[in-house]
Every structure is written in structure tokens, then in C-alpha cells.
Amino acid sequence: MNLSRYTKRAITGGVVALIVIGIGMYLLGNLSGYEAKELIKSSISGLNTLCNTIVLASATILALMLTLLGVSAGTSSKLKDDHYHHVMEIAKVDTVIFIASLLFFLLFNLPVAESDNIPENWFSTIYYISLGVSTILSSALIVVVLMLYNTIVNIIKIVGLGIKDHPLSVEEKNSETDDK
Is this model's pTM higher than 0.70 or not? Predict the structure, then answer.
């Protein structure tokens, strides 16, 4: 898969966020099953809120991308296919995040902490998995926002500021040279 420099830059931002949150998880140290069970009980509402917020943000981003396409198509400046491929990349990643967040929202609503059938030593694993999932979902949303930011900046440069030599702008042929 050939990623643009804008996408690579956005992924780098997401990886940095992932590392920062991962360091925070590492600093928590090892937890016993009982401690993890208590932390799950206290953090489950926050995890549900996080997933719900990511679902809402992803759906809003998809809806607003229709406006972005309308602006892109309605301009007097011509945009290269790379611009539309970048918008499709954003839509694909955002859709995956939307679906994953919705599924994990449903999983986080399972009453795991109240179950007597789960061995006590599994709770630390369940807790770290839930932290990992929330970290990955948050970092992925950061990637989408950074990708969207890059796209908006490019449109502002091409459409708003009229930059003609932008890498995503199609060079218009001069009609005087075509008549000769």
C-alpha cells in the first residue's frame, strides 16, 4: 500500500500518542486480579464513554466529509486524483474506527466484573486488554483527525489561497499556447 507523506505524518502522530499512553500503562505496574477487578469496575463507565465519543466523532467526520467533497468538486481549481484517494483513505480508516468502537462499546457493557465464573487471575489480563483497546482506538482517531487536517489545509491552499503550483493541484493549460 502506497501511503502519501500526509498519511505517514498522521500515522506518526498516532504512534506518538500510542507510545505516550503505553508509557502510562507501563507506569501502572503489575496488578493483582483483585486490584484489576476493582479498576475495571471503576473504569468501565469511562471506557464506555470513550467508545461512545469515538463512535459519535467518526460518524460526524464521515458526514462532514460529504461537505468536503462538495467543496472539492465545486471549485474552479482542478484537484488531482491523489486528493480524492486521500479522502477515500480517511473514509476507510474512519469507518474501521467507527465499527471497532461500536463493537468494543458493546463488549465493555458486558458485566465482566460482576461475574463469578471468571477466575480472579484473568482480571488483570482483561484490564490490560481494555486499556490497550482504548489506547489503540484513541490513537486511531488521532490519525484520522490529522489526516483530515492535512486535507483541509491542502484545500485551503489550493481553493482559498489560489496556490497554483501545489502538488495536488492540476496545472491548467494556457489557452494561448494551445492556439499556436
Answer: yes
> What is the distance between the alpha carbons of residues 15 and 96, in angstroms, rounded to a whole number?
17
Q: Give residue-wise pLDDT tens across range 36-80.
A: 777 777 788 888 899 999 999 999 999 988 888 887 777 666 777
Residue 179: phi and psi, rounded to 5, are -75, -20
Q: What secondary structure letter does DSSP report for 79?
A: B
Q: Any alpha helices (H) in 74-174, and if so which ranges? A: 81-108, 122-155
Residues pairing with 79 in the sheet: 169
Cβ count near 23 (within 10 Å): 9
Is the pLDDT higher at 41 or at 34? 41
Give yes or no for a contact between 49 and 92, defined as CB atoms under 8 angstroms apart. no
Query: Residue 176: in which H helix or E strand, if any?
Result: helix 175-179
> Would you call 28 helix, strand, or coil by DSSP?
helix
Angle, CA of 147, 152 and 158, to the nearest 5°: 130
The Cα 149–Cα 136 span in angstroms is 20
Cα–Cα distance list, 136 to 77, 78, 116 (Å): 37, 36, 29
Task: Give the residue, 162 or 137, on which the prediction is more confident.
Answer: 137
Place of cell 502506497: 2
Greater confidence (17 vs 167) lies with: 17
